[in-house]
Structures are given as C-alpha cells and as structure tokens.
Amino acid sequence: MTAAEDSAATLRSWTPIREADRRLQCEYVEFADEPAHTHRETSSGQHLTASAFVFDAALEQVLLCFHGKGRFWVQLGGHIEQSDASLADAALREALEESGLDRLTPVLGAPVDLDRHALSSGFGSCQVHWDVGFAFIADPDATPLASEESESVAWWPVAGLPEGSVSGLAGRIERALASISAA
Q: Higher-confidence residue: 75 or 82?
C-alpha cells in the first residue's frame, strides 16, 4: 500500500471523539482520495502532512521544536515523503529526524488530531497543510537534539506552553490527550 492509499484508508477507518472532527474527517477523506494531495511535489499548494505529538510517559510534558522557517514553537512533523508507507510512518520519521531521538513508541495506531491551516508566504509554494497528528511516547532518559529544520527542541509542560507557540497548539495538544484518554 502506498502512503496515498494509506492516507484515505486511515482517515476513513478513524473514529474521532469530537463532532467537529467527524465533520472535518469527511473533508479530509475527500481530499485524501486524490493521490496527488499526498506529496507536496504533486500537489498544487495544498497537501497532507503528518505530525507527532511526543509526550513523556506521564503525559505531562510535550516535546516541541522551534521551527526555523515559521519562527514559532510547534509539534514535530512535516511532509510525507515517497519512501513513507503510511501517514503514521511519516509522522514517526519526521519526529525522529527533528528530535534527534532514537526511538518513539506509538500510543495509538490512529490519528489524534486533524488541523487544516494556511501558511505564510515564507513557506514557498506550500499554501495549506492538511495535517494529521499522531501521538508517541519518548523514553524519559533520551536527550532531544535540534535538527537543521529547527533552532531548538525542548520539553514543555502541556499546561505551560512557551511564549511564541503556533496559534492553536494548546487546543491540538488537548485534543491529542483527550483521544489518548478515550482509547
């Protein structure tokens, strides 16, 4: 199965816990049914992305990166590559690349968040990301390291996000935690 095929199937089989996510899920499924929307190289400025909400085992801390291009604190994640077999694989790959960690443990095999957002002109030809978020747990003894894409990677209390966080991040983290609690 390709990442494009997996994207539509994953979104179809997911059972969101919020009514708003059920409505958004329908839009995402329709969007993901077009394989060209999976990769930024084949899309017309709008495409699926995969992100990772990386928590400590107690679900009290979240690992964030300071995005160099966007100039904000945000969860780990990014574009789906041709080598990714699934949305979840893309989220895991991006999180490992951006955090410098060796291993992350998936919490659920399903998404925990959907977030469609417009991008500034600083993101080049990317105009809108249709982001699908997944949750992971990191080894509490592992030390994160910033990648070339981010200036810093750090743990933050889920109830005390840093100044300069991307708009809506607190709500996305709350949705991810609610999804984990409901499972």
A: 75
Which residues face 130 on adjacent strands?
48, 116
Q: Kindly report the CATH class assigned to 3-182.
A: alpha beta
**pLDDT category of residue 137 using cuts at 50, 70 and 90:** very high
Alpha-carbon dihedral sign for residues 15, 114, 39, 72 = negative
Longest CA–CA span in the chain (Å) reads: 42
The pTM for the full model equals 0.90
